[in-house]
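input
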Amino acid sequence: MRSTLARLGIAGATAALALAAAVVPAAANDDWDGGDSRDNWGQGQGGHHHHDNPRLYKGVVTANGGLVLRSAPNRGSQVIRVAPQGEVVSIYCKTSGQPVQGNPLWYLLTDGTWAWGAARYIDNIGPAPRWC
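output
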């Protein structure tokens, strides 16, 4: 069920991003930098959906050279922007996507645009984000 809902949300977000976002060159390295995400992705949060909860979670980008943020939770999707290493980002929710260095989670970020970042390169500040 969560997978179907996530695909529907991704399709809507992708359509909106395609209309509104400018493509930035993929100059940053989004390969694994050896850091580890503090997200406890082995333990789900029961699939609860809290779309009416405006709380945003926070994280810090750990990827050397910055993290490529994308229109969908996979490395083949459109590049939206690059978040520099050390940037504190606002996270709306998490979903499963293409695994990056063994971590299948991606975070939907809300910093000016809606874009997906691999959780492998974002260390949580505080609690892990809720599921989308």
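quick obs: Confidence is low (pLDDT under 50) at residues 1-53.
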